[in-house]
Amino acid sequence: MIYTGVEALDEMLGGGVPKGRSVFISLEPGVDGQGFMFSALKSACAMGKRCLVIAPFTTREAFLSDLAATPYRLDAIDRLRFLDSSDYDEIDARAVDEDAWRSSFDARIDRCCSEGGFDAVFIYCNRICDEIGTEETLKLFLSRCRGKKVNLFVEYLNLYDDDHLDDLIAAAPFDLSLSIGEGYGNLLFINHFRIHHAAWTPLPSRQIPFVVRDDGSLSPQIPKIVVTGPVDAGKTTFIQTASETWVSSDRLGMSGSPTTVAMDFGHPLVTCRGFEITLVGTPGQEHFGPIIAHLLTNATGVIFVVDGRCPDDLGRARQILNLVRAKSIPFVMAANKRDLPGMMSEDTIRRLLSLPPDAPVIPISALRREDTMAVIDRLIRLITREPLSE
């Protein structure tokens, strides 16, 4: 197995990319997503894998120099072999036609592979695609690597559209197809990746947001998890317990009254399964309904907190839950105060709230960090790995 080096992606894939599997990474023009390929290459080198990098657009020296000041600096390069622009230009200069170019290129690849005994091949394929066609290029390397049980990673700059990408995925059956695009919903400053297909593990095709830090590293995000529920259910306590520090509008003195709290905010970001997560808490009072609806806008997921001892509060809970379900947002039900007597059973809570059988209901104490993190962990798995309940 080769790790992608992006913890959240490796978690989704069940640990990484199994031996002999192929990965296709498609980038939209202008998106800063080269880190996915760099990260996998760095991981493979760090694991002691023998790697071949086919980079027709640059020289070996320039490639390594560009990575030297980034988190993807390659320190273990003794098992690294390049076919770079100098090799490509030599083939290009000698070829009299496309058939001759293809024959010469095949011979160079065969010689390199027979000498190297590689565990993984990393290809930047666009310049080769210009010579022999995109589908032909992808099929060429797929057949060679599969026959030798070598991992294949291909980065492709998609200058066309989603239909073109779909056609390529259908024509060249990679084991993992990943696209990198700009924006995430209405959040233009966040990029996203999408797993279109993973042969070894079932995953929904869903956009996953990420940002590129100043140092060039990738940081997958869950940019907004809303913590909501009836008044006094334990929402603020949940955020306070899960976050290293937190901000409450009550503490900021919006009116001095605890009944007019507008929002709680967990900061710095909570980290779970390789994702950085922002928690936003809503008020529970009925007259704050418009604020709750507004805070649910662009939410990636919802943690719905109820007092597990108070069936009378579940009427208000149903009203808020209807707002969540109307927006089709993934949610987890956290039944709080399990450390106190009088706790309702999960089945009772599920029945009173008319929840479907597969909707997660988790008894917790919002005072215990392991309980709050278990809820966040379950929601992350729901967002990234499972079909959503209606």
From TrEMBL:
State the UniProt keywords alphabetically.
GTP-binding, Nucleotide-binding
Q: Which CDD domains match?
A: Ras_like_GTPase (cd00882)
Record-linked SUPFAM superfamilies: P-loop containing nucleoside triphosphate hydrolases
Q: Where are the transmembrane segments?
A: none
> Which Gene Ontology terms cover its molecular function?
GTP binding; GTPase activity
According to UniProt, the name of this protein is: GTP-binding protein
Q: Which species is the source of this protein? A: Methanofollis fontis
